[in-house]
Amino acid sequence: MSDITADDIEDLVTQLKAYNDAYRRGVPLISDLEYDRLVGKLQTLDPLHPFLSKVEPELFEGKKEIRHPVPMLSIEKAYSREALERFISRVKKEAAEIGIQDIRFSVTPKLDGLAGRDDGEIFASRGNGEVGYEISSAFEKGIIPLGGRGRGIGEIVIKKSYFDEHLSNNFEHPRNLVVGIINSDKLNEFAVKAIEDRAVFFVPYAELESWIGTPEELVDQVEEITRNLSAKTDYPMDGMVAGVTDEAVREHMGSTAHHYRWQIAIKTKGETAVTRVENLVWQVGRTGNVTPVMEVMPVFLSGATIRRVTAHNAGKVRDDKIGIGAEIEIIRSGEVIPKLEKVITPSDQIALPGFCPSCNSFLQWDNDFLKCMASFCPAQIEQGIIHFFKTLGTAEWFGIKTVQKLVEDGFNSLVQIYVMTEKDFLDIGFGPVQSKNLWNAIQTSIKKPVEDWRFLAAFGIPDLGTGDSRKLLSHIRLEDLGKVRKEEIIQIHGFGEKTGESIQKGIERVWNIIQNMLSMGFTLEMTPLAHEKKTSGSPIAGKGIVFTGKMKKGSREDMQVQARKLGANVQTTVSGKTDYLVCGENVGDSKIRKAKQLGVKTITEEDYLHIVESLNTAL
Question: Can you tell me the distance from the alpha carbon of 200 to that of 143, in angstroms, rounded to the nearest whole number?
Fold first, then answer.
């Protein structure tokens, strides 16, 4: 292992990305088996590499980018009854804060396909959760929209029974065939046959059978609920999704940058194996945390040979006595990265580092983490720059090898990088084509519109990810953050005393950098302030509104944006807090039925426009 360098790992990642891109374009260069072997190799060399921590990117060449009106976030996972109970307790506590005691949960199968959102006009892939690709051609190819168009979020899947009988010998996973159908202009014979046999569907989650009951019933009956729903679902699944049904509770709980707080995926634990620690290596992250990775005796687990496993943090190494010779149990669930489950036999060789492995600075304890506090630490600088480009999402070409070279040559701040010329890139050893690409990427990053909350989150301020940045900027303008105090922050729901203090200090630390970057002229889309959303005299101010079906006079997203500007509480599902269900064309029966049950007024698109236009006439 000692002869493996960072460059070797990045070369492997570059290779995997190229193979993945070719596969997504329908021209695979290697077999699935060989590709999986290379992924396993990367996992062995660097189990914490970002490539392994996310679904392989959807690179739909030639397809239009679509920004989702509401982020298609991931889902928090519960692998035990205890984790499910903790989630339910959080929901109960948050519901009680807004005076709601009687809550219900729904449980729906979690499909394992290609996620997408269909509003009746635009069908977009999930992409990175914020931005997807227009894939309406899927329906032209013959994929069947279950329940009709405009049914919201769901998954493109192939019937499990059909796959098992006809395709399991040709494809390792049903999702491989589904992605190939979306990505390829010319379908292979298997895809053509599956479509002709009406076996490939876009299944909106609204069309799936679900269970609804009390929190207590959910905990007591979770195994039975899972068995019953699984037996009725003929699509690939990887668990169940439980979520609170009350829209007011959903809105109150909100989301993190990663997942919605009001729902959880109920999953079973994956395969486990016992192995022995042979070495412990330490890595430096963006915030200075120095984290341990165990090099273990190779063990075969869930189709891969595992040689490296994260040990979480220095406190766990200290408390659980993790070191050379420790016998451990590891687990590999739905995720690619194996994790430490428990220490079976502790080690008597515990070695915690005293100095940073990147800059050799003295390390300090911060709760359970060893932390490098040096502002000049190369590893932290590199990770911070990469985080900015990755979060902002408007500049390509700035991968780890490029950023490392820039930092090594003295370009160790965002401000320095953003004022570089094409000649500057050439002078430090980049080739002519790459230099031009890097300079063009910077210019694109400045000019391409991006949300102000994404820009703020890109600076990596602790406790201020994309979700909380959006929340903060809905109350305080970006240009005013330089003088914000924690007292103002904690007045915003969701920010506590410690978080408020952490955010204030974090902003103070990078405010000069933020100001300098703002002076570059970034094209920022400003977040509407919460107190400006209520429009005086608006007939829909404060009203709960759900838009459904295909609209004639504009897209559903445009109508939602307009409604928010007029002070409406735009919702995605009908609940007791809904006042109007606005129906376009091809509306499914389920929402209309639910509206009738709850006494929600159902109106047409024309009725709604008449209501809105009455405000314009009055003005």
Answer: 5
308 domain residue, yes or no: yes
Strands of the sheet with 263-266, listed across from one edge: 77-78, 263-266, 237-244, 105-111, 211-213
pLDDT tier for residue 54 given thresholds of 50, 70 and 90 = low
Looking at the 3D structure of the chain, how many domains does it have?
6
- Please state the φ and ψ torsions of residue 457, each to the nearest 5 degrees: -65, -25
Q: Tens digit of pLDDT for each residue in 185-194?
A: 778 888 888 8
Interatomic CA distance for residues 13 and 290, integer angstroms: 23
- Strands 369-372 and 363-366, bridge-based pairing: antiparallel
Query: Could you give the residue numbers annotated as active site?
Result: 110
> In terms of Cα–Cα distance, which of 302, 308, 239 is closest to 272?
302
CATH number for the domain including 338? 2.40.50.140
Residue 247 to residue 543: CA distance in whole angstroms = 13
Element (H, E) at 123: strand 123-125
For 359, which DSSP code? T
Same domain, yes or no: 361 and 389: no
Whole-model pTM over 0.90: no
Please list, in sequence order, all residues whose beta carbon lies within 8 angstroms of the beta carbon of residue 27, skipping any fewer than 6 positions away. none
Closest to 392 (Cα-Cα) out of 469, 324, 317, 462:
469
